[in-house]
Amino acid sequence: MIVDVKVPVLAESVSEATLISWHKKQGDTVKRGDNLIDIETDKVTLEVAAMNDGVLSEILKNDGATVQSDEVIAHIDTGGKADKPADQKKPAVTQQQSLPVDSVAVATQAPKTSPAVRTLLSEHNLDASQVPDGNADGRITKDDVVNYLGKGKPQVSKVAEPAQPQPAKIQPAPVEKETPAARTAAPVESARTVQAPSTAGGRAEERVPMTRLRQRTAERLLSAQHENAILTTFNEVNMKPVMDLRARYKDQFEKDYGVKLGFMSFFTRAATEALKKFPVINASIDGKDIIYHGYFDIGIAVSAPRGLVVPIIRDADALSFAEIEAKIVEYGQKARDSKLTIEELTGGTFTITNGGIFGSLLSTPILNPPQSAILGMHKIQDRAMVVDGAIVVLPMMYLALSYDHRIVDGRDAVQFLVALKNLLEDPARLLLQV
Q1: pLDDT tens digits along 284-302
Q2: Other residues' Cβ atoms within 10 Å of the Cβ of residue 416
Q3: Count: domains in the chain
Q4: Marked catalytic residue, from 70, 251, 315, 409
């Protein structure tokens, strides 16, 4: 029986997706639950698992293809048998001793090559062992192949597969009709990567298509700047009280709750308390209406291999420090493994981003629509400050609040940051909620 392999039903806000890479080849045996392919949407990466045991009889959509929700991308034959390995179906073709030594080099170990180099070798009927290793590091680069072709070296035509092994035919490269420049004018493409040609000076370039997540992020950032009146206000906070409190209790905290006590839980709790005092910062615009949210779903910006994602901590005001830290650790791991779900990335009333972990001293974060504000944390740096008329060295952090000036007045934005600063410089306020 033939069973369809379909794209999962995507979220309402996601119209299409991109196939990343097939984990099974056509003709492979598959078992129920095997991951067949990864699919990238605007927000998350999904795995498509086999629903039946059988053989992957046909792949309809290759890597890099754009697909729609519930579209058929392959077929599984539940009664089929896997193809025999290539080495069992075809006799091995060996190099004949009669071939010229300088034309076909018989190597004990094949040189390392990239997909783009293998494509170029295939186009010109070359064997990797023919091409001199320019860097003597066991890897053949595209420049090595181009230089080899430019010298007019003979090429080995593909060997036919008769019943008995036959020596490969040797024919010279068509130097007069096709120059190396002409051959490299069109980039060599794979499903996900396009390798651009190298210039004569050896300055290589690589053209890589944007991932769907990166495309969506770019669209949203441009849209945010075009459709919102973004303004940023700054303040600074003395982090010594939080750092002292954290140093005093971090070992006991980790022992009791099994998670480390970080700065993000302090900022999340402080933000929710400040948002209660200034609800417009927690609001959003819908057409000509302002929606005031009576809940506090805080987005925490996380840097992942695929790009920046913002998972949501729901009802953050009702969570303990330990619960907030556990959520942050969970989301961080899911982001690295591309396991975040659409539900975990949807919504949010306010966002916190921490550029300080990368060394940023100051920045102006961009809104995450439809939210009306975003808080930027930065690097903690010792600075000389005046306290009660004396100069002391304190660990200071700059805070940045970018907000939509269409609904948030400058007074509210400044007072929100001051309230946040007061809570962090006197953490007891977080317990007393004053």
Answers
A1: 999 899 999 999 999 999 8
A2: 25
A3: 3
A4: 409
Q: Which amino acid is at 38?
A: D
Q: Which of 53, 405, 412, 426 is catalytic?
A: 405
Using CA atoms, how far apart are residues 235 and 397, in angstroms rounded to an integer? 9
Distance CA 97, CA 104 (A): 10
Q: pLDDT tens digit string along 169-184?
A: 444 444 444 433 333 3
Other beta carbons less than 10 A from residue 409's beta carbon: 11
Annotation says 127 is catalytic = no
Active-site residue flag, 315: no
C-alpha 271/C-alpha 298 separation (Å) is: 9
Q: Is residue 68 domain-resident?
A: yes
CATH classification of the domain holding 18: 2.40.50.100
Contact 212, 17 (CB under 8 A): yes
User: Taking Cα atoms as reference points, which of 309, 37, 318 lies closest to residue 192?
Assistant: 37
DSSP assignments along 277-327, one per residue: H-GGGG-EEETTEEEPPSS--EEE-EEETTEEE--EETTGGGS-HHHHHHH
**pLDDT value of residue 181:** 37
Which pair of tokens denotes residue 7? 């794209």
Which amino acid, one-letter code, is at 65? A
> Would you tell me how many other CB atoms lie within 10 Å of the CB of residue 233?
18
Dihedral of alpha carbons 131, 137, 142, 146, sign: negative
Give the pLDDT confidence score for residue 264 in this predicted structure.
Answer: 95
How far apart are alpha carbons 11 and 46 in whole angstroms? Answer: 12
Q: Is residue 238 part of a domain?
A: yes
